[in-house]
Amino acid sequence: MSQMLAFVLVLAILYIGDIVSVRTKAWIPSVFVCASLFLLGYWTFFPKDIVSLAGIPSGVAVLIMYIIVVNMGTLLSIEELKRQWKTVVISLAGIAGLCLLAGGVGLLLFDRNTVIIGIPPLVGGIVSSLIMSKGAEAAKLVELSVFAIILYVMQGFAGYPLTAVMLQREGRRVLKKYRAGEWSVTAEEAEAQLKEMGASETTMPRMFSFAPGHYNTDYFKFLRLGIAGLLAYLTSTLLAPIVSISPFVLCLVFGVLGTSVGFLERQPLFKANGFGFAVMGLMLFIFDTLKHATPDMLLNLVYPLVVFIICAVIGMFITSAIIGRLIGVTPAMAYAISLTALYGFPADYVITNEAINSLTRDPRERQVLTSHMLGSMLVGGFVSVTMVSVVLAGIFVGYIIPAP
Question: Which of 21, 57, 167, 273 is the most exposed place for a label (fewest CB within 10 A)?
């Protein structure tokens, strides 16, 4: 198969996944459609190395992971986290509930490696799933390597509809109070909060403010992302004799620090017009793992898959509802925030907007709902998927027991 034919085939699959997701308003996740088509391709006429043929070998994919995790770190505004402290607490509580119930039940029913490899993908998205999948593959645990990816593919089926129901319930409560004149947040405050969440910088970051903005080219943005990734790698190497820390965890740290000191702007990868290509490469590398999957292997994984996802949603519900009541957040909103761990950004943004649009068409009411729900949902996704999941994966991957 030629490179361009391989490239066209894999991109066609990604696009078909997007079409189905858009048409079904994300009730059928795009990753599920793509994974199904990749499996069908591998079981029929796809060469096993179709992703490498298309131009994304493992070396390129690892480079993309470094850059994209640093970029994820730039999304974490310390000021926004302080303002949304209740969201942070609820998100962490939901993750704790997930880990305790899924881990406890998992240890009773499955072996230790299954639990270690299964929990981080439940808490996060693409990066944590890939870290655990590649860690399992390095330990010669091929079936569990596929399991990490299948969890990532399937958990949206539980997360998307549950989140939509919770947000609509919360939205109806807020609208009832707003229409009765009992809701204090104004449309102007809502707009200000949205601007804060989506604030963009078109000039040089603070550390380079002495230079004109036109020197902040795409290459300069990539250079600074690369430097942050290099620092993460070097730090991980230097600390290796003392403590084992995944370089991807440190990429997240250097992304946050780089933004705080003015070395990086928010979302430099997006502003360098490289975010779409990076996500494409990472998604293809995720689906590349499915080349090891066989029909018998998938049948063997159905039982642990169902158990882990059910335990995850129950564990998150229990802890988020308890903590939410203690700090003054309704159970519906608290549960919706916790559920962002199952999909993260941009699904949290899409689902929240879909819920708001289904409840009202009035611009002021939509701004009030957006102010109340969108910021919390985005911060919840940042905390779980962007921050905690990468840290968990970086820690858990070191405890995988290699196959004899």
Answer: 273
For the chain, the straight-line distance linking the first and the last C-alpha, in angstroms and rounded, comes to 36
Q: How far is CA 308 from CA 81, 115, 338, in A?
A: 29, 9, 16
- Tokens representing 164? 């939509």
Interatomic CA distance for residues 309 and 342, integer angstroms: 9
Confidence of residue 250 (pLDDT cuts 50, 70, 90): confident
The DSSP H or E segment spanning 43 is none
Q: What is the mean pLDDT of residues 253-277?
A: 88
Q: Could you write out the three-class secondary structure of 64-89?
A: HHHHHHHHHHHCCCHHHHHHCHHHHH
Residue 346, C-beta contacts closer than 8 angstroms, at least 6 positions apart:
none
Cis peptide before 57 (omega within 30 of 0): no
Tell me what pLDDT residue 10 has.
Answer: 95
Tell whether the model's pLDDT for residue 197 goes beyond 50: no
Q: Which residue has the tokens 């593919």?
A: 153
Measured distance CA(387)–CA(242) in Å, rounded: 23
User: How would DSSP label each residue in 266-300?
Assistant: SSHHHHTT-HHHHHHHHHHHHHHGGGG--HHHHHH
pTM: 0.71
More confident: 297 or 166: 166
Instruction: Give 345's pLDDT tier (boundaries 50, 70, 90).
Output: low
Task: State which H helix or E strand residue 215 sits in.
Answer: none
E runs forming strands in 241-304? none
Q: From residue 323, give the alpha-carbon distance in Å to each of 92, 257, 341, 342.
A: 10, 30, 16, 19
List, in sequence order, the alpha helices (H) in 289-346: 295-327, 331-339
Angle at 329 between CA 328 and CA 333, to 5 degrees: 175
Q: Which residues contact residue 195 at a Cβ distance below 8 angstroms, ignoring those fewer than 6 apart?
A: none
Residue 402: DSSP 8-state: P
Rounded CA-CA distance 91/388 in Å is: 10
Does a cis peptide bond (omega within 30 degrees of 0) precede residue 346? yes
Q: Please say whether the beta carbons of 378 and 345 come within 8 A.
A: yes
Q: Are 168 and 358 in contact (CB under 8 A)?
A: yes
Q: Is the pLDDT of residue 200 over 70?
A: no
The neighbour count for residue 323, using CB atoms within 10 Å, is: 21
Banded model confidence at residue 321, pLDDT cuts 50, 70, 90 = very high
